[in-house]
């Protein structure tokens, strides 16, 4: 099976080369036969890569240590589900996953309903751009990072999987993150196709909307899973350290979020055409950049792979793709002109443009801080790392401005300008948010202006969403004459895009409150105690009951059993542990957490001394669970918006409105 997969992987780049050549010739000469053969070549690439991926899965499941990748990342005592997840544990396997996903997405685009709307020629131009990305990754995997290479003398057992990756979160986090990374190639391809053919310049953001939103949802879910993994697995008590690889996923998320908002302006007004092309391109390049940072090892990160020779290839591909987009954009510059007419500072369009600037500022600041060590080494001769305080100091005020702007945008209905256009219910929502901020300042001693804005801005989002939803439901209720409940359900279902966005915004407010509570009001206690002794932290009393040594399939565990009381009531038994893996030089920390909506009790076992004293580190992290609930609200809102229909023909509708017909 491995030899079949290896041959398929070697052949795939040749089909990718042919597809790019045939599609380019077909577009240039308007040859339907060439276009058809190019599209079928892309299908052949998907089949060949699927065979290679199947061969790797078979080699992993059967523990074929004759395959170098299997010997490096698995062992006989590794549970099967972690063995299969080793597919994306290493550099070569993760790049094969990238290649398989992009070839799959190419096939989905070729067979989707969009083809019937825009015609064979346009969809072939889309396939050409995706084919170029396929060609790059197929060549890279076949020639440089091949996971199916065999070794002459197979070992009796493999080296095993990194213990940090033996966590349920790591089964789902990388492939979901990759869905987001790879998915952004499709809206980018729609933008390039629109420029190449000078067609669908107005409509391409709407054609690629589901792909943009799907990729954004996947990227959001992947980032949230990564945060949760960091929180429960790394044992440091945090969830975001502004690590280079963490930042690498956040940069395209910022730009992709800006694109989702900017595309709405183009859909409704026809403006920002060039800006949207730039955002689609920058989001795609950001995903390639994130892959480069993780794979090249140029920056130190707990998430990154070891250093490799792949860096120059990724840099070359990014430079070529950016140059190509700039050249095509300048060639078609006249088609990208579109005047943005706003109704003043408090118009819907103006605020969304400001939204784009702020998201772009966040992406730029994060990019500068992340890559600063590379530039300092290049120009000063030494790597100077930028730590979390820089990112906190620069990004916090921008993020808080965005939080306030999110609430204000909800207050202002489409096609109304100025403060006079704001409904009375929205003004009540603004008053409520101000009262919430003042109340929080009085009750929780929130004297910092940043903290006040965080509470007030989050309250503004929730209140404005509720007020606007109630207003829309009552308008429909008066029109239809039905009950308010029926009108509410119909209103939400008929405009899933809008109300999905509302749910996303409520999730964002929850995340901000969770970050505020868990970072500002966190409390920590470190103490060495013996069995039977107690330690207090906040409202909890934690008693060490016993120390137990147990065996797991592939590790030895030393576990401390802790009895937790709140007042006089027993509320939990927690078992933080240290796991000793044969493949690891030092023990791995396994934390135990009591999680409630009000906050977490986070316990870490630091080891046992010779005299029997147990080192414990305890944290109380108020409201941290609001981050996880808020993240899933964001994902759920995105999925709900994803179910809304694609709305083409907006240019004609805008022309009708302008002429007074529609």
Summarize, please.
This protein has 662 residues and is an alpha+beta fold.
CATH top level label of the largest domain: Mainly Alpha
**What structural class results from the helix and strand content?**
alpha+beta
**Low-confidence stretches at least 5 residues in length (pLDDT < 50)?**
650-662
**SS elements, strand count:** 10
CATH topology of the largest domain: Four Helix Bundle (Hemerythrin (Met), subunit A)
The fraction of residues in strands falls at 5-15%
Level of helix content?
Answer: 55-70%
Q: Helix count?
A: 22
Rg value = 27 Å
Shape: globular
Largest sheet entry: 6 strands, antiparallel
CATH architecture of the largest domain: Up-down Bundle
**Average of pLDDT:** 86
Count of the domains: 4
How many angstroms separate the termini? 62 Å
Subcellular location: Cell inner membrane
Domain Cytochrome c-type biogenesis protein CcmF C-terminal: 316-645
InterPro entries: CcmF_C, Cyt_c_assembly, Cyt_c_biogenesis, Cyt_c_biogenesis_CcmF
Family: Belongs to the CcmF/CycK/Ccl1/NrfE/CcsA family.
Give the topology, please:
Elements: H1 2-29, H2 32-61, H3 68-73, H4 80-85, H5 91-111, H6 114-118, H7 120-143, H8 168-183, H9 185-197, H10 204-207, H11 209-233, H12 244-269, H13 273-296, H14 311-331, H15 348-380, H16 388-411, H17 424-444, H18 449-480, H19 484-494, H20 496-520, E1 523-529, E2 534-537, E3 540-552, E4 555-566, E5 569-574, E6 577-580, E7 588-590, E8 592-595, E9 599-608, E10 614-622, H21 625-642, H22 650-659
Antiparallel strand pairs: 1-10, 2-3, 3-4, 4-5, 4-6, 6-7, 8-9, 9-10
Pfam family, one: Cytochrom_C_asm
Subcellular location: Cell inner membrane
InterPro entries: CcmF_C, Cyt_c_assembly, Cyt_c_biogenesis, Cyt_c_biogenesis_CcmF
């Amino acid at each position: 099976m491995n030899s079949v997969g290896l041959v398929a992987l070697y052949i795939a780049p040749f089909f990718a080369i042919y597809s790019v050549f045939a599609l380019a010739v077909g577009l240039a000469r308007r040859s339907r036969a060439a276009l058809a053969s190019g599209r079928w070549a892309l299908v052949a690439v998907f089949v060949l890569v699927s065979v290679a991926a199947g061969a790797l899965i078979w080699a992993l499941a059967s523990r074929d240590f004759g395959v170098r990748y299997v010997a490096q990342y698995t062992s006989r005592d590794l549970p099967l589900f972690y063995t299969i997840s080793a597919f994306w544990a290493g550099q070569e396997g993760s790049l094969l996953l990238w290649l398989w996903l992009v070839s799959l997405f190419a096939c989905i685009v070729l067979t989707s309903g969009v083809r019937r709307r825009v015609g064979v020629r346009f969809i072939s131009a889309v396939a050409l751009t995706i084919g170029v990305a396929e060609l790059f990754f197929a060549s890279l995997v076949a020639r440089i990072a091949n996971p199916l290479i065999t070794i002459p003398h197979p070992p009796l057992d493999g080296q095993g999987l990194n213990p940090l990756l033996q966590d349920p979160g790591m089964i789902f986090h990388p492939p979901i993150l990759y869905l987001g990374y790879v998915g952004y190639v499709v809206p980018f391809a729609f933008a390039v196709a629109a420029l190449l053919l000078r067609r669908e310049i107005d409509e391409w953001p709407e054609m690629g909307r589901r792909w943009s939103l799907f990729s954004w949802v996947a990227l959001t879910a992947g980032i949230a899973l990564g945060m949760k993994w960091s929180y429960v697995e790394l044992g440091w008590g945090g969830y975001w350290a502004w690590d280079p690889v963490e930042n690498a996923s956040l940069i395209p998320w910022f730009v992709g979020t800006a694109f989702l908002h900017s595309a709405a302006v183009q859909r409704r007004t026809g403006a920002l055409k060039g800006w949207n092309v730039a955002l689609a391109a920058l989001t795609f390049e950001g995903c390639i950049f994130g892959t480069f940072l993780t794979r090249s090892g140029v920056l130190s990160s707990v998430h990154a792979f070891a250093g490799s020779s792949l860096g120059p290839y990724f840099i070359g591909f990014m430079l070529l793709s950016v140059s190509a987009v700039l050249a095509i954009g300048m060639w078609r510059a006249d088609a990208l002109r579109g005047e943005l007419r706003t109704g003043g500072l408090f118009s819907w369009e103006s605020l969304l443009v400001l939204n784009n600037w702020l998201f772009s500022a966040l992406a730029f600041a994060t990019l500068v801080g992340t890559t600063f060590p590379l530039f300092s080494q290049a120009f000063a001769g030494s790597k100077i790392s930028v730590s979390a305080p820089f990112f906190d100091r620069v990004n916090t005020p921008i993020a808080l401005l965005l939080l306030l702007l999110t609430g204000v945008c909800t207050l202002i209905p489409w096609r109304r300008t100025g403060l006079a256009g704001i409904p009375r219910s929205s003004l009540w929502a603004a008053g409520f948010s101000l009262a919430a901020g003042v109340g929080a300042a009085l009750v929780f001693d929130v004297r910092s202006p940043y903290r006040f804005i965080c509470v007030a801005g989050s309250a503004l989002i929730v209140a404005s969403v509720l007020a606007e939803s109630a207003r829309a439901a009552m308008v429909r209720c008066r029109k239809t004459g039905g009950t308010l409940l029926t009108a509410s359900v119909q209103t939400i279902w008929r405009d899933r895009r809008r109300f999905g966005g509302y749910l996303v915004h409520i999730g964002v407010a929850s995340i901000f409150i969770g970050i505020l509570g868990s970072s500002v009001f966190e409390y920590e206690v470190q103490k060495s105690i013996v069995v039977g002794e107690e330690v207090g932290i906040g409202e909890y009393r934690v008693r060490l009951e016993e120390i137990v040594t147990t065996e797991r399939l592939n590790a030895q565990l030393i576990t401390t059993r802790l009895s937790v009381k709140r007042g006089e009531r027993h509320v939990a038994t927690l078992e933080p542990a240290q796991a000793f893996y044969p493949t690891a030089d030092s023990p791995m920390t396994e934390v135990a957490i009591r999680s409630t909506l009000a906050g977490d009790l986070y316990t870490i076992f630091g080891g046992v001394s010779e005299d029997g004293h147990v080192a414990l580190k305890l944290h109380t992290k108020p409201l941290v669970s609001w981050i996880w609930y808020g993240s899933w609200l964001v994902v759920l809102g995105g999925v709900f918006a994803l179910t809304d229909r694609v709305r083409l023909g907006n240019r004609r509708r805008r022309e009708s409105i302008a002429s007074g017909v529609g």
